[in-house]
Amino acid sequence: ETGVTQSPTHLIKTRGQQVTLRCSSQSGHNTVSWYQQALGQGPQFIFQYYREEENGRGNFPPRFSGLQFPNYSSELNVNALELDDSALYLCASSLEGAGDTQYFGPGTRLTVL
Amino acid sequence: GDSVTQMEGPVTLSEEAFLTINCTYTATGYPSLFWYVQYPGEGLQLLLKATKADDKGSNKGFEATYRKETTSFHLEKGSVQVSDSAVYFCALSDRAGNQFYFGTGTSLTVIP
Which partner from B17, B24, B45, B72 sits 20 to 30 angstroms from A52, CA to CA? Predict the structure, then answer.
């Protein structure tokens, strides 16, 4: 059974640029959630996708957007990057009907200069 | 809105000591409660969970009881090991499982 994978591992961007992060969910999992984890802080929920639709959203501006594909993989897109967007971005997948039990990927470290 | 407040760290204990990490929550409705652990160099892992009042979650010698009257979900272990050194996060989700809130994490170091 393949776990949750994320790419890239690390990324450096400059302020104002756009970035796309990718996540492959664990085999059989159709729900994907994205989190932002600043250094020394807990993960902050960005949004969740279920069957290609946004299914829940945290307190993040619209420049944070996402997609889920028919194979349940997912992308997080961030436009107009700001310095405060520098963080570890985590993806988590879960099974239908068990949305509260999540399996996390290793994360993508984004640095905005 | 919903939130989780977690005991500040870092916590340093000797091997075989008793561990308590406090967690309290604010939520509307009936959330599910979780403890996640992040070992050095690894990703977040679910340690235990409880989905309703008075439920006790347990795993690897760790326990936590969902206390609705005190809105708490404290993590305990009777005898910690060096291998328990990690960062522990308390978290909650709404009943539907599509909104999540994490605490700030508590770093635990266990010394031999």
Answer: B45
For the stretch A58-76, pLDDT in tens is 999 999 999 999 999 999 9
Q: Does A99 touch chain B (CB under 8 A)?
A: yes
Given a contact cutoff of 8 angstroms between Cβ atoms, the answer to whether A67 and A109 are in contact is no
Q: Which residue has the tokens 């031999």?
A: B112
Whether B99 and B47 have beta carbons less than 8 Å apart is answered as no
> A104: which 2 tokens?
């996390």
Q: Which of B96, B98, B103 faces A42 most closely, judged by CB atoms?
A: B103
Per the CB < 8 A criterion, the answer to whether A31 and A52 are in contact is no
Polymer length of chain B: 112
Dihedral angle at the C-alpha atoms of B107, B92, A42, B79, nearest 10 degrees? 10
Q: Which residues in chain B have their CB less than 8 angstroms from residue A42's CB? A: 4, 6, 89, 91, 102-105
pLDDT at position A104, please? Answer: 93
Phi and psi dihedrals of B16, rounded to 5? 75, 5
pLDDT of residue B1: 81
Residues of A in contact with B32 (CB under 8 A): 100
- Among residues B96, B98, B87, B103, the alpha carbon closest in space to that of B34 is found at B103
